[in-house]
Design brief:
The complex is a heterodimer of chains A (305) and B (294).
Chain A: H1 6-31, H2 35-38, H3 45-54, H4 61-73, H5 87-92, H6 95-122, H7 127-141, H8 144-158, H9 170-199, H10 203-210, H11 215-253, H12 258-267, H13 271-299
Helix pairs in contact in A: 1-13, 6-7, 6-9, 6-11, 7-9, 8-9, 8-11, 9-11, 10-11, 11-12, 11-13, 12-13
Chain B: H1 13-22, H2 25-42, H3 44-47, H4 85-121, H5 123-138, H6 141-152, H7 156-167, H8 169-183, H9 186-193, H10 198-235, H11 246-254, H12 262-289
The chains are: A mainly alpha (305), B mainly alpha (294).
């Protein structure tokens, strides 16, 4: 998976996006006629039918599909029922907040997992190592949104240290980012520990030790550099889950990102917004994969060229 | 996993499995936790001290019994409508386990069928199934579940369908990979040469040899699914009142966080404990049956 050229990876976006568009169409088609939700209650049946005809909702599914694909290819995603404006800008303006939160979650996860994983590996089978293992299992078992609620309770309600909802300065980002990051931190810690342990048994590490290098240098330069490759793979795979986790975390903290928008759009059946959001989030996920591929080349020079 | 008894014939596989479980503390803990939750779920009517749906607004938001102002009849306190939290958590166990088990059964079945099909058929069928899986992996599962929930509606049965429709992917990938490995084995070629039909081949020679990783993945999936159920119910797309779900209790409790911490705390502990039991048991199963998956 890591040997592909960026261009080929980019080309692989196409079938994935096509199938995603197909899935979205089927789901939208199956949700049925949204016209009843959209027009005022006192509108006549004739008005409703006129609207249905104007949107082509009375046509057979294959014509609706052609129309849908035509609209996507020309960048016309329709109007948001709820906001009454073009849906695309409504979605686009939410992207930065979600990116900020996801990046924050990633940073929190790495800040926790890297030192903890290294420590656990170097003190293998010690009491702290077992304690760390126990905490990581617990971290995987806790529902993310509940962690968020508990953080709000302790740091927002009891200690009053940080704001508990909305967005603004850096202080608003702390709790949501920690919430999003903890679950992933648990998995990453376990992975860094096990891959570092594996690497430290390798011949080149023994050679480095035999050369008389300091233990710190052996661990950092020879051990960690190689142990990080699976960690990067996992981070890339998990970034997609992190985007999904942001949906729930944003709702808990009223964070004005894509997740909150999607959840509200689903409550109100705002189909145009839902469709674009699915595409945008998928493209974000694919882009993260692409970025990881590039990162591999930096970490592992064998893949460059 | 060392056999202490030096018997002439090895003990049957099932007994060995049990013995290895009993020597693994984490595995025993997982089994004990899940046993307890299962017991609570099955006997909810007898174990819950009060009717979980009975409202009593004069007793709303009572703190747990051991705190000042608590009432000994309401062990974990009451929610905003004066319903007994402990009784609601007891009944919530039933929802979590039934949704968890049903959704995993359904998604494992889909995953097994599509994984077998992709692995055995190869060619275009395989390519098509893998392309769909790639696309599904590119959409965050949570987002996908929400969009499917839009179509399926909310409630117990739609929830099972929503979760199953989005969680078969991991299972299908593992089954396919296993089938591709087993298919090339000599004994499969021998069975094929001696005239075994495709169905007999799968049932008698392929399936038994891919079963262990399938069981491990399915077990661990129960935890994932219980977390998904609670998140969907939390967002309001899952279990609807008067049905009781821990996720939905959490979303109610969140509104009273400033005054009544217990309403949102105890259901979360219940979810964590259940998922912990699944993970501990699943990890042990994995170490024992299929260490490659670690």
């Amino acid at each position: 998976m890591s040997g592909r050229s960026p261009l080929r990876t980019l080309l692989q976006f196409v079938p994935v996006l096509y199938i995603v568009s197909l899935i979205v169409f089927v789901l939208v088609y199956l949700t049925g006629d949204p016209s009843a939700l959209l027009i005022p209650e006192d509108a006549s049946e004739e008005d409703r039918l006129a609207l249905v005809a104007a949107w082509g909702l009375d046509q057979p599914w294959y014509l609706q599909y052609l129309r849908y694909m035509g609209n996507i290819l020309t960048g016309d995603f329709g109007v948001s029922y709820r906001y009454g404006t073009e849906a695309l800008p409504v979605v686009i303006e939410r992207i930065p907040a979600t990116l900020q939160l996801t990046a924050g979650g990633l940073v929190v996860a790495i800040l926790i997992a890297l030192p903890t994983g290294i420590f656990a590996a170097l003190r293998r089978n010690s009491l702290p190592d077992f304690a760390i293992s126990a905490v990581t299992v617990l971290g995987k078992a806790m529902p993310n949104f509940w962690v968020g609620i508990m953080l709000i309770l302790v740091f927002g309600v009891w200690l009053r240290l940080v704001p508990v909802s909305g967005s603004g300065g850096f202080s608003h980002l702390i709790l949501p980012a920690v919430t999003l990051g903890t679950g992933f931190a648990a998995e990453l810690t376990k992975l860094i520990r096990s891959s570092l342990l594996e690497v430290m048994e390798q011949d080149y590490v023994r050679t480095a030790r035999a050369k008389g290098l300091s233990e710190a240098r052996v661990v950092l330069r020879h051990g960690l550099a190689n142990a990080l490759i699976p960690a990067v793979t996992m981070t890339s795979l998990h970034a997609i889950a992190l985007l999904g986790g942001a949906l729930v975390t944003e709702t808990v903290f009223s964070w004005p990102g894509l997740g909150q928008l999607v959840v509200q759009a689903i409550y109100t059946k705002d189909m145009a917004v839902i469709q674009i959001a699915v595409f945008v989030i998928t493209i974000m996920a694919l882009t993260i994969n692409l970025a990881t591929d590039a990162l591999y080349r930096v970490i592992d020079p064998r893949l460059a060229g | 996993m060392t056999d202490l008894l030096l018997t002439a014939s090895p003990p049957p596989r099932r007994r060995r499995l049990l013995r290895s479980l009993l020597t693994n503390k984490a595995g025993v803990a997982g089994l004990a936790i899940l046993g307890l939750i299962l017991f609570v779920a099955l006997g909810a009517e007898h174990l819950a001290p009060l009717d979980p749906l009975r409202r009593n607004l004069s007793l709303k938001l009572l703190p747990p019994a051991w705190l000042e102002g608590g009432n000994p009849r309401y062990l974990l306190g009451t929610d905003s409508q004066g319903r007994d939290l402990f009784s609601r958590i007891v009944f919530g166990a039933r929802t979590s386990l039934s949704v968890g088990l049903a959704a995993v059964a359904l998604s494992s079945l889909i995953g097994l069928a599509l994984g077998l099909l992709a692995g055995m058929a190869g060619g275009r069928v395989d390519t098509l199934i893998m392309r769909v899986i790639d696309a599904m992996l590119a959409i965050p599962t949570m987002l996908f579940m929400l969009v499917v929930a839009l179509v399926a509606g909310s409630g117990l049965l739609p929830l099972v369908v929503v979760i199953a429709a989005t969680n078969w992917v991991g299972c299908a990938r593992i089954v396919r990979a296993d089938v591709l490995g087993v298919k090339e084995m000599d004994y499969v070629a021998a069975a094929r040469a001696s005239g075994a039909g495709p169905v007999g081949l799968v049932l008698r020679h392929i399936l038994p040899n891919i079963l262990s990783s399938f069981v491990v993945v399915s077990t661990l999936n129960v935890g994932t699914v219980i977390l998904a159920e609670s998140a969907l119910s939390f967002l309001g797309f899952g279990i609807q009142p008067p049905e009781i779900s821990w996720g939905q209790m959490l979303s109610e409790g969140r509104q009273y966080l400033a005054t009544s911490w217990w309403v949102a705390t105890f259901p979360g502990i219940a979810i964590t404990l259940t998922v912990l039991g699944v993970i501990l048991l699943g990890d042990w199963l994995r170490d024992h049956l299929d260490p490659r998956l670690a």
